[in-house]
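Dear Dr. K.,

Following up on our conversation at the group meeting, I've run the structure prediction for Cytochrome c551 peroxidase from Thermogutta terrifontis. I'm pasting the input sequence below exactly as I used it, so you can double-check it against your construct before we proceed with anything downstream. Let me know if the numbering doesn't match what you have in your notebook.
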Amino acid sequence: MWKRLVSFWKHRGEMSVCPVVRWQTLAGKWRMVMLQKTLSRWLVCLIAVAFLTGCPKPATERGQKPAAHTTGPAASEATPSTAESAAPSTTEAAPQPSEAQPAEQPQQPAPSEEAAKPETQETAPAPAQQEAMPAPEMTSPATESQPAQPAAPQESAEKPKEEAPSPAEKPAESAPAGAQSAAPQGTPYEVKVPLGLPPLPIPEDNPMTVEKIELGKMLYFDKRVSADGSVSCATCHDPNMAWAEHTPTSKGIHGQVGTRNAPTVINAAYATSQFWDGRAKTLEEQALGPVANPIEMGHTIEGMVQTLDGIPQYKELFQKVFGTGVTPENFAKAIAAFERTVLSGNSPYDRYRAGDQNALTEAQKRGLKVFEESGCADCHTPPLFSSYEFYNAGVGMNKEKPDEGRKAVTGKDEDFGKFRVPSLREVANTAPYFHDGSAATLEEAVAVMAAGGIDNPHRSEEFDTVREAKITPEQQKDLVEFLKALSGEFPKVEPPQLP
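The predicted structure tokens came back this morning:
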């Protein structure tokens, strides 16, 4: 007994510490146990969620191509809508339609990563929804915010996935239906603009190609576009007559006579409107007008197309140039492309402006000065020598039934008797003049305009400037000589061999 007491007394220091040590040890073990229990509970929850919702099948088991999981250039080209709607992987859940709504409202604060992870796990889609989900390439922003559709049968869901194009093929499929006809099919053609002319405007939907221009050339000279096969575009716009004709007004089918003079095709590509009254905005619109005019070609658009479609070589050419059969639109595009090659420039005036002081005669230099100082250039604006605006100069207003001019297009009384300002390039070679061909010579036309037009109730006040200049007969002669200096170089085309 004594020995025990002595031993206890000797080890009393150690005995006093043992309870504390044992308490710290027990506390550490308790924390470990609690941590293990917490982790176990989370693990049980995750296993339960995975068991209830089901795990997404691999792409190979669903019949998909595992392209959605690739990481490379093709994957980096995916659009944002494709990336957001991609099929869920084993660590991310695909968003439900309820989650797509906040995505479209950027003003709401996005949840943090720690809060988002449990939420996406709890809202994972059901297995049937996962299998019916379209492939990433087939999604679009319009369908992301729509409610989920009922699960389709496995075969119908897998078929579009197998035929889904790769991201690189998407742009070709999403192109507009008319893009194929707008794209150039053939050898690109670059128009060489002569000296003195501005850059040539070419519509984006009608690019220039060698094959298209050649087809347009054939159609331009082909009289079969008229109802009786007697009139072509070249009948009234003859290349040998400066792409016009030397008669006051034009003759159509059955010898019918029109009421207006045929304007030249030269530099018509620059005009902001076509015809004397501007009823067509482009060369393409203009090309179809005479076909259906009962006095000119007297055909119908449908009948003209049927006629050309019955010629095998034309069908082959249209297919080669446009990738389609004969259509009114492509008929007009071909002729317009050909007409855009009919340009005139490099005239003595252009060379004078370029620095050649000897390009103009003394009379032409005096005429240029009168032209610029008397107000002529206000309407006949260089370098095209036309503003392509509409004015009433009084020409033909004394007739019993005057031509309404621009009013027939706009219906406005103030446009009565107004006509488009013609270009003065090649004017010396395109007599007779004015919309009705009433001036037989250039001298007659200059005299009318130098007087400020002909008085009538609708005469445009812009002619007052010219009238107030009081151009003398000698100055009129100088003006005529200057206008001759606007004659340059233009193509003279021979009729091609027709199909």
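Two things stood out to me. The domain at 348-484 is CATH 1.10.760.10 (Cytochrome Bc1 Complex; Chain D, domain 2). Residues 13-21, 58-182 have pLDDT under 50 and may be disordered.

Best regards,
J.T.
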